């Protein structure tokens, strides 16, 4: 069983996926963390974020791996855990550039397809490209202002600046944020976290653990 949860930036994909995974008793897989790891490594190495061979070399040659857990994914570089460093502002600004590189996307997709089922897969194009065979697909959306207000609770930045950044991110990610034809689209704006989780679980009556 594979459940995919896609959506725009800051729509709550990670929190929702973790809640759904815990309810189902399965791991959740955050593809976005691998793209963030790519951006972080490129920034640390002083590599151009648009240089596909260089970024791919960092990923393939240094043992980057994702550890999928229901309570939260962890990303490792050998014995070094990268997880805490993946949500900085500089990574936020750089992740779209590396995620747009076809070779990097192919590398991430290959890592995800090696994972054993069942799991909840969260991230861009999970239901359209990576796991088109998934039995249940969901797509989360919300207005830029709603998403900015939520993100402002996590980071010390003003809401208009966050909203502008998210709008730019949506434009940069346009090719990767189209919902699958068979996905259930959920506007998370009027719902709290548990409300979104409940909507998803209500469509999966046979999957509760």
TrEMBL record:
- One short Pfam name that applies is Cytidylate_kin
Question: Where mainly found?
Answer: cytoplasm
Does Methyltransferase appear among the keywords? Answer: no
Q: What is this protein called?
A: Cytidylate kinase
Q: Which SUPFAM superfamilies match?
A: P-loop containing nucleoside triphosphate hydrolases
Which positions bind ATP?
7-15
Write down the superkingdom of origin. Answer: Bacteria
Regarding protein family, the annotation reads: Belongs to the cytidylate kinase family. Type 1 subfamily.
Q: Domain Cytidylate kinase, which positions? A: 3-203
One GO MF annotation is: kinase activity
Q: Which keywords has UniProt assigned to this entry?
A: ATP-binding, Cytoplasm, Kinase, Nucleotide-binding, Transferase
Q: What class of enzyme is it?
A: transferase
Where is the protein situated, by its record's location annotation? Answer: Cytoplasm
What EC designation does it have? 2.7.4.25
* HAMAP family hit by this protein: Cytidyl_kinase_type1
Catalytically driven reaction(s): CMP + ATP = CDP + ADP; dCMP + ATP = dCDP + ADP
